[in-house]
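Running co-folding for FE3-S4 cluster.
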Amino acid sequence: MAKLYQGLWSSECRSFGHGYLHLCIASLKAMTYVIGSACVDVMDKSCVQECPVDCIYEGGRSLYINPDECVDCGACKSACRVGAIYYEIDLPEDERQHLSDNAAFFHEALPGRADPLGSPGGATDLGRVGVDTPLVAAMPRPT
Ligand code: F3S
Ligand code: F3S
């Protein structure tokens, strides 16, 4: 499924017609949902059932949303009983690190792997990855 994009207002926007229609080519930006710290060591996985494009992948202590595959539908957010999922622009300050960290799970080689996961095209077929980003791996475990 094609990745959706959201145009954001910026000084690069050019006005058309009566000034109400703007084309913001320079600021087209892919948006995503993000799994934050509340998922760590909980991993309820209710979100996985809701995702229409199967883009929520299982690490060792947390799940991660692939920002390149997420179609921003929001179905996963309401399924999470611990409120771990945010639209990226709604991330509270102390959760913002998970925006780049969810992406890093796919864009950077994980511990024990030579290459990044990239976009596998489906978490079910890939199966449990079983390792985490350094950020999540270093989080304190519940006592
Ligand atoms: Fe985690 Fe919530 Fe999904 S705990 S696995 S983000 S349902
Ligand atoms: Fe999937 Fe939609 Fe969430 S595409 S990751 S259920 S926002």
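Result summary
The helical segments are 46-50, 75-79, 97-107, 123-126, 134-137.
Strands lie at 5-6, 14-16, 21-23, 29-30, 33-35, 56-58, 63-65, 85-87.
Job closed.
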